[in-house]
Specification:
0% strand
């Protein structure tokens, strides 16, 4: 009996947890630093080009059919093109897993596990992520379907109870420092949202083909994941105060209360963050290895990588250095990788059709020449 394949809904939940952590948590302090009050307008304007990007992703997904992205690119671009894609993808996804792992461990250490060694915090997270990666894409998708509903409920809760603290006048005026911050904000918005292309890696594991409306709906949800907490941080704390916060989305939880007697509900955010973090780390580790079609020693590679990223916490980097890396390296690399992915995929479409046409002409010629 064939195992049950995940549906698009479960794949969407997987992406919402993985990409949502980046677009809901990591990118907001970056947007506030580079664009300030104008950052919310950057989100609105950049939603237009990202919709076009989503249409291109859908076009590529139709070409894949039952093939993995690596198989399809190797078939159309040859072994050299396929090897380049695999190498770049592995490096990219390994660094995604590392930086997500590091930032999560650092947040846990600074917020609610102050006395705990950072290495121990990271080791527990690494064990959980490695185990999930070993179990594969089906487990990741099904686990996301279980984890996400509570994440969504908690998100709507904090947005609702904090309405009393929101001052919409803080969203204006715009362009206090010219138009440069706006355009910088647009770039960083795009750097996070291009991860919608992750669906190309997940598609071969799904039970049905992806439809355009499904992909567009997922994109609008991702836009909302950035717009909601970003505007919330500006309205609740003001653009200048929010700009100096390390985790604005987490600070919104600190002022949320449940009724008159329960004034501390920020423990709900721990569930939200860890659900997204372990999903993102596990998915990145899995893609980094499976892109090479490794089967026999796959789990060993996951374990080795888990040990390496845990060991890196013995001598952690300075938080200021990490924040600068988010702006100067991590998000620009994000944008560069997915631009590279889309570019070679668009190149592969006409090349693949040309190869198919030549094979068809060759078969026709052989048929005519035979007696």
């Amino acid at each position: 009996m064939n195992p049950v394949k995940p549906s698009f809904l479960q794949a969407a939940m997987l992406i919402m947890l993985s990409v949502g952590l980046s677009n809901h948590v990591f990118i907001i302090p970056v947007l506030l630093q580079v664009a300030g009050r104008d950052s919310w307008l950057s989100v609105v304007i950049s939603s237009l080009p990202i919709i076009l990007f989503t249409l291109v992703v859908f076009l590529i997904s139709k070409q894949l059919k039952e093939n993995t992205l690596a198989e399809w690119l190797s078939s159309n671009l040859g072994k050299a093109g396929g090897f380049l894609f695999k190498l770049v993808s592995s490096i990219y996804f390994l660094q995604v897993s590392y930086f997500t792992f590091y930032d999560t461990a650092m947040w846990a250490k600074s917020s609610y596990l102050i006395e705990s060694p950072m290495f121990v915090i990271g080791l527990i997270l690494a064990i959980l992520s490695v185990l999930t990666a070993c179990l594969g894409m089906r487990t990741l998708a099904f686990a996301s379907g279980i984890l996400l509903p509570l994440v969504v409920i908690f998100g709507f809760y904090v947005a609702t109870v904090n309405v009393q603290y929101k001052d919409y006048n803080r969203l204006l005026p715009l362009f206090e420092h010219g138009y440069t911050p706006l355009f910088r904000g647009i770039f960083y918005c795009m750097s996070g949202w291009v991860e919608i292309a992750l669906i190309l890696f997940i598609q071969p594991y799904l039970s049905k083909k992806i439809k355009l409306w499904q992909l567009l709906l997922l994109m609008f949800i991702m836009i909302g994941l950035t717009f909601g907490p970003l505007t919330g941080a500006i309205m609740e704390f003001g653009p200048y105060e929010a700009e100096h916060m390390r985790y604005p989305a987490f600070e919104e939880w600190r002022i949320a209360s449940l009724g008159k007697y329960i004034t501390q509900t920020d423990f709900f955010s721990i569930y939200q963050w860890l659900a997204g973090a372990f999903t993102r780390i596990s998915l990145a580790m899995y893609i980094a290895v499976v892109v090479w079609d490794i089967k026999k020693k796959r789990n060993l590679i996951f374990i080795i990588w888990g040990i390496l990223i845990s060991a890196s916490l013995i001598y952690p980097m300075n938080d200021t250095v990490f924040q600068n890396l988010l702006i100067t390296l991590i998000f620009p690399v994000n944008f560069a990788y997915f631009s590279f992915l889309i570019a070679i995929a668009l190149m592969a479409i006409p090349i693949g059709k040309l190869k198919k046409k030549r094979r068809g002409n060759g078969a026709t010629s052989r048929g005519r020449s035979s007696p």
